Amino acid sequence: MPAPPGSGAGKPVAGRLAGVGNIRRMAPWPEPERGAPPRTPPDERTSLESWLEYHRATLLHKCAGLEPVQLATRSCPPSSLSLLGLVRHMTEVESWFHDFDDQPDGQWYCTEQDPDADFDGVDPARAAENLAAYLASVERARSAVTGVGLEELAPGAKRPVSLRWIYQHMIEEYARHNGHADLIRERIDGATGD
Asked: pTM for this one?
C-alpha cells in the first residue's frame, strides 16, 4: 500500500504522531509525542482534531516500550484482543476519513471471508509493518479531510454521514479501544496510567 501524500496538517495539533523514529527497526515499540487537548479550543474543529490526535497518540503510548511478542499477547481467553490487534483494527477504522478522498480503498487485514483478521491475524514479526500501515492510514485520513467542512457528507460512504459525525465516532472508537489497551497493557507488564 503506497503512503499517502503529505500529512494534510494545516497547523500543529496536540499529540501529532511525529517522532516515532525508525519503524524498520522497531524493538521496542517507539514512544509517540503526546500532548493534552486544549481546554479552551478556539473552535469546534480544533477541539475535535485535538481530541482525536490525543487518542491516536494514546493508543501508541499504550504500546510504547514493548517488544513485538508482547504487542501480540492476547488479553485473556477466549478474547483475541491484543495491543497489536487494536493498532491493526484502528488502521482500518481510520478509513472512515478516507471516504473524503478520491483514492481507491486500501485492503489491510479484514476480508469478507475473515472479518476479524485485524484482531485474529496478529504476527509479532510484522509489528513494524503494522505500525507503518497504521501511520499511513492516519496520514491519509488527515490529508483526506483537509479543508473539508464539518457539515460536508462523505462522498464515498454507503450511507449519508457528515465529517462532524465521523470525528465524533472516531473519538468514541478510540476511547473505547484505549480502555481495552489500558487493561491489556496492565496485564502484560503492570503499567498503568493514561
From this structure: 0.84
